Amino acid sequence: MPCLQSISALTRRAALLLGALGLMLTFVTTTHAQATRYAGAPPLLLGAAWYPEQWPEAQWDHDLALMQAAHVHLVRIGEFAWSRMEPREGVYDFGWLDRAIAAAARHHIVVVLGTPTAAPPAWLTQKYPDTLRVSEDGVRDEHGNRQQFSFASTRYRRFAHDIAEQMAKRFGHNPDVVGWQLDNEYAADSFDPDAKAQFHAWLQHKYGSIEALNHRWATAYWSQTYDNFEQIPVRADHENPALLLDWKRFVSDTWRSYSLNQIDAIRPHVDPRQFITTNTMGWFDGFDAYTVHQALDIAAWDDYVDTGEDYDWVDNAARHDLARGYKRRNFWVMETQPGFVNWHATNVTLRKGVVRDMAWQAIGHGADAVEYWQWRAAPNGQEEYHGTLVGADGTPVPVYGEIQQVGAEFAKAGAVLAGTTPHAEVAVINDFDSRWAIDFQRHAANFGPVAELKAFYRPLRAQAQVVDVVSAHAPLDGYKLVVAPALNVLTDAEAARLKAYVEHGGHLVLGPRSGMKNADDGLQPQRQPGPLASVLGGRVAQFYALDKAVPVAGEAGQGSATTWAEQLQAQSPQTQVVLRYGKSNGWLDDQPAVLSRRVGKGSITYVGAWLDDGLLDRLTASWLQQADVHAPVPGVPADVEVCVRGDARHQVVILVNHAAAARRVQLPSSMWPVLAEGGASSEVSLMPYGVVVLDSREPAAANR
Ligand code: GLA
Ligand code: GLA
Hints:
The chain is of the alpha/beta class. It is built from 19 helices and 25 strands. The protein folds into 2 domains: 45-417, Alpha-Beta Barrel (TIM Barrel); 426-626, Class I glutamine amidotransferase (GATase) domain (Rossmann fold, 3-Layer(aba) Sandwich). The protein is 32% helix and 20% strand. Strand 12, helix 16 (492-503) and strand 13 (507-510) form a beta-alpha-beta unit. It is globular and about 80 Å long. 51% of the residues are buried. The structure holds alpha-D-galactopyranose (2 copies).
């Protein structure tokens, strides 16, 4: 027990650390349905996908007892059980769900209910084949597998509404139901007659007249001029990029209205504390996730990684930050893999310790729940080989013990992390319009927009450690540095906001291909970066796809560009050339590759090439320095990830060692261990794949 004096000394040190962490604290008021914490449930939830409909009820208690022993406090159920809930049209059977929820509650487990619309029953698709989706080449799906419905089908939506409403009436006031998952992993668009008619109506609403559409799509090209909206083809490939971009936006709006159809059925019948979400898929770009999340209360995503014993933790970090950016608050991991999946060609398991590493990474990035798919191997079905916590025989598999440890740790750390969230001073912009526009016309096969985003994200994560990934429409004024990796589609409104951000002292970095396209995916009337060229005092003279590396050098050192290089021109005396190309195709020789201009206290930088990691590291360091952004825990080994969650009272640092060897970390100030016993320290050792959670506030203060 430290004496009073040393307590105040420690408190001072904690205050210093808060300063050293240099983090902005913002307070967001949330309604119950928007919060990610629920009365009665622990603040950090360990969960599993459970399919009670697949098992005799007599076995449920056995499974739930094993869950309870692993500190599982959450199950998601029902999302594929339509044929059990509505065995015949209009005939409902929810008794088994009542009993499953009650059984879970007896084991202190709360429930997220899935609406079962990703798997329509056979009676539905047999009687109403028009509800089945149609592929781009006009082939209607057969019944079987899942996701075989048309997201635009008016009739399907009626059935989806009804089953969701019946569920809501039954479970909307059930104290053990904390929220709703709509459908499951929205993915497949449909080209059926309903979708086609709705797309035409959507275009008509957007453009008002066919003349306006012809003008904005520049349809004089290849005799595309339309006389009426019905003539417009419905395609997702090989079309006018304006049409393709609008199709993606239509698809995004259609998934939003698909959500709203069920939300309208659920919301009137449920307690406000019950949230409504759906589970999304990382970088998946089938729809604009920001559009779809407008209708949802919280973000929840399914965290699956590439096959291998380790995972690409920087990619996964970015995907967590992406999910946090959908609602700009904490999120849930609605599914993750207990070791391995069944859908890669070779489904290598994560090595021992990495499942725990992944769970804590999720928490570090702002997840308040981590849920494993799935609890128990199904007795049959397409996923018999998938990783689980429990085998079909009902006994634990080896990874159960590791997940049980995670559960025990969540229980221990819950009170400390409750109400905390990451606070970033740096934002990376993720823009679906731009990602789509580049993918429609890559020009350089290797120019993957996500890979390019990650090239900028990687050094930011290492050096700034807390990074937001947000849409181009998010408020930017709280950020010291904003990086827009390839903001290809730049609307006038977005350009005006970015300009204002820079003029108010923000530091903006634009990556290659930025500001090339207008809102219709047409070429900007000015050269890149289009409406921002005047702020930059520079422009792109020409772009070049590369099939070999081009040397680049300047004050950030020497390196190379691959895949893409733009020949830049400084047009203002205040615009500085940061990097130049060396000898290459003649056009690029000695030409500017990176331009930068100070604007008041802010700055705008244009990076015209896909630079190698070393150059991007050094440029990133200079941008962070200029923007006065500092790592909360500087000098950590490259494979140790630093995550910080905080609130007004304290900061919690989560260190995850992604290496198979032990690591040591020096903290800027002493902190208290949360998972382990012991006093405050500024020296931390991490076991291979080890996790350490540290609190800036001493435990006694935390208990007050
Ligand atoms: C062909 C076509 C042109 C144009 C060029 C582009 O030659 O005839 O219309 O598409 O290819 O290289
Ligand atoms: C997705 C689905 C789940 C399951 C898992 C398997 O995330 O949502 O139903 O199929 O994949 O990895």
